[in-house]
Amino acid sequence: MSTMNAPATPVTSASAPSAPAAPRPDQLTERLGLGVDRVMAESGLWAPRLAARAFRQARGDVTRAAQLLRTHRTSLPRLGRSLPVRAGELRVVRRISSAFRNPPGGQVLGRTLDYVGRLLDLLPEEEGRQRSVRASESAQEHHDHHGHEHPPHGREDEVERAPGHVLSVFREMDIVAPPGDHDDPEPYDITRHPARPGVPRSALLQTMARADTGALLYLWYGSEWKPAGQEVHEVPGELRHGFLPVRVEHPHTGRPVTVGDVRVSEVVSFHSLTRAGELPRHLDVGYGMCFGHNERKAISMAGVDILLGHHEGTERAAGLQHDVLLTLDGPDITGYAEHQKLPHHAEYRSVLERATAAAAHQAGPRRTGPHPGDTA
């Protein structure tokens, strides 16, 4: 009791624990780079430092950080439009193929978590920090000496830093479906025009590139859009991660000028989805590309792209496009859950009154006094 009744000791500034310093944007991009990449992909804006600041402000909430970055992007002026670039110009830091053991251009394993043990790192903090620093210095030294971060799979003189697509090999073999005759001369801008079922393929690809990774993964893996009886999954013929140049037109000379680059993940998948009454003649092709290092999202995007092409022209096409365009955007789908926390007093009071009235009607009229036939 004496302890409970003792006066509280005032805490001075000297004895108060100091708040930990907030991580700097460069620390976040280095240590939590995959999370920062997801923020940029789902916001549709390549800005690593701004994405790291949004990630820090949202306390690690990727969707909220993407919303912050989108809101900031809408306040910026559009100074120009970049020129189209070919995906073949991608300077790879990682490139693997599930279709070929030795694809043209070679395999580049690169930096990945695929081959790391699934065990929690319980090293003391200081020892783990020193090991991480040594690994970073070793990787940087290897990068300075060889021009890439990690040794590729195979001899270095056999690896191309901008290898050609596996798709071109399949086209030469005449085993992939020919390109569709899509009337889409200019890419559809989903940030300026509403995207609804019936939009061109470019709008669908843009929507998936900005989609929530988990929602897109579910639509590809767990949905009912896959044809019944065809359980064989598609094969990622090529997965690449690297840098694409950004070019603009020089205002005076009109010539293309490279002003920077962006890091992207790209996947080209192949599948053989037959329609009723048809024999499989060609492989269907699916394509996925998104900002940053997010292979899971690019694979899911390519898989959904195959399904969109398979159902094109059928009765189910509008339903699948509806799911892609209207149920994958992270801020949109989480906004519905967030708004449930806002005051709904009047709405829920009316619901409660209707439920109370219905219960009273089912129970019949209540007796408020003695019945005339009752005796004392």
Strand and helix layout:
Blueprint: H1 2-5, H2 25-31, H3 33-43, H4 48-57, H5 62-74, E1 91-96, H6 125-146, H7 166-172, H8 201-209, H9 213-221, E2 235-249, E3 256-271, E4 284-291, H10 295-311, H11 317-326, H12 330-339, H13 345-363
Antiparallel strand pairs: 1-2, 2-3, 3-4
Helix pairs in contact: 2-3, 2-4, 3-4, 3-5, 4-5, 8-10, 9-10
Key features of this structure:
376 residues; alpha+beta; 13 helices; 4 strands
General description of the model:
With 376 residues, the protein is of the alpha+beta class. It is 39% helix and 12% strand. The protein is built from 13 helices and four strands. Strands 1-2-3-4 form a four-stranded antiparallel β-sheet. β2 and β3 form a beta hairpin. It is globular and about 85 Å long. It starts with a helix and ends in a 13-residue tail after the last helix. 27% of the residues are buried.
